Structures are given as C-alpha cells and as structure tokens.
Amino acid sequence: MTNVGDDDEPRDSKFAPDGGYIPRILFLTPSGEVMDVTNTQGNPRYKYYYSSAEQIVPAMEKALQMAQTLPPATAAAAASEQDL
User: Residue 75 pLDDT more than 60?
Assistant: First the structure.
C-alpha cells in the first residue's frame, strides 16, 4: 500500500479512473495496471473511496483473488523489477 500526498500523486489518468478525489484506494497489478476492484458498498459516484475497514476488506479479498489468476510471467516480471 502506498500513501501519497496531493503533490506526489501520479498525473497519469489511469490513476484517476473516476476522478481525482482523495482519499481513494486503487489496487494495482505487479505491472502497475489498475485492477477492476471498487467499493461496491459505497457511493457509486466515488467507486474508489472507502469509509470503513468493513468496506476495504472485501475489496482486498477480491484483489487477492484476481492477483492469484494473473499469468506467472506478470508475477515474475514484478519480482525481477523489485530486485533492481
């Protein structure tokens, strides 16, 4: 998990899939792509905003399940990048 301030937020639009509000939680693949994991219990206008741990846990579980289905090459590439 990474916590960034306003000035450190990436400018790439992929990191603001439904706008630039904060705080928000994005789950990423090892290659840095935003996963399709949103807060299904929250406000549909702010899909990546979580107001409680009870909302975050199901999203984390979904991200974990999705990560386990990633191709092995994706995981291996991420591991080799971490070694740099």
Answer: no
| HSE toward the beta carbon, residue 44, CA cutoff 13 A | 0
**Ordered domains of the chain (ranges, CATH):** 6-74 (3.40.30.10)
Give residue-wise pLDDT tens across range 20-58: 888 999 999 988 899 999 999 999 999 999 999 999 999
Rounded Cα gap, residues 30 and 52, in angstroms: 25
DSSP structural state of residue 83: T
Name residue 17's beta-bridge partners.
19
DSSP 7-48: GGS--SGGG-BTB--SS----B-TTSPBPS---TTS-TTSTT
Q: Which residue has the tokens 């909302």?
A: 55
**Residue 3's pLDDT band (boundaries 50, 70, 90)?**
confident
